[in-house]
Amino acid sequence: MKLIVGLGNPGPKYDSTRHNVGFDVLDRIARRHGDGAVARSRFHAAVIEASVAGEATLLIKPTTYMNRSGQAVSEAVRFYQLDPATDLLIIVDDTALACGMIRLRGDGGAGGHNGLADVEQKLSTAGYGRLRIGVDSPGEIPQESYVLGRFRPDQRVLVEQALEEAVEAGVCWVTQGITETMNRFNRRQTA
């Protein structure tokens, strides 16, 4: 079993915001690999069981709001007795990356992201895969207002490409693991 978690905030108020790119990627993976499955409420999350390239994969969108995402992640990891280092991929927004860029890592700190900080606190480890999607720096705009805002038209074009690339990276992670996925997708950013 593999676990892909997209972080975001539940409810229409937050749809298409910068902070919800993790949800956006998960929705795309679910449409392509969920065989029409309807999300169930489980682990304080909306959960879809999917088959990604023949691998049983649980797609999770925590419903606890961003800053408490660790509750859903830790419940699912414990229930399925998963190894976060090999079986967990978290997808999040990143204000330190240019809009449209993606970056994968197999471990590391939260980088100031409250959702990741909560996941790490609840799992007692930073050793899990994470796929960050660049949303640009907020500049003079307060961080909270910026990440809860919607993309400008020029950013929307870039983020659409990044969301598609993130879907490909998620599928690659399921089939090839984090190292191969990093080799394939992190390299694209410098080309």
Task: Please describe what this structure looks like.
This protein has 191 residues and is an alpha/beta fold. The protein has a single domain, classed as Peptidyl-tRNA hydrolase (Rossmann fold, 3-Layer(aba) Sandwich). It is built from seven helices and seven strands; from the N terminus they run E-H-E-E-E-H-H-E-E-H-E-H-H-H. The chain has helices spanning 21-33, 70-80, 84-87, 114-123, 143-147, 153-176, 178-185; strands at residues 2-6, 40-42, 45-52, 55-62, 88-94, 102-105, 129-134. It has a seven-stranded mixed β-sheet with strand order 2-3-4-1-5-7-6, sandwiched between helices. Strand 3 (45-52) and strand 4 (55-62) form a beta hairpin. Helix 2 runs parallel beside helix 4 and helix 6 runs antiparallel to helix 7. The longest helix is centred in the last third of the chain and has 24 residues, at 153-176. It is globular and about 45 Å long. The mean pLDDT is 91.
Jot down its keywords.
191 residues, alpha/beta, Rossmann fold, 7 helices, 7 strands, 39% helix
Reading the helices and strands in chain order gives: EHEEEHHEEHEHHH
Number of domains: 1
What is the overall pLDDT average? 91
CATH class identity: Alpha Beta
- Strand arrangement within the widest β-sheet reads 2-3-4-1-5-7-6
Secondary-structure arrangement, i.e. CATH architecture: 3-Layer(aba) Sandwich
What's the number of helices? Answer: 7
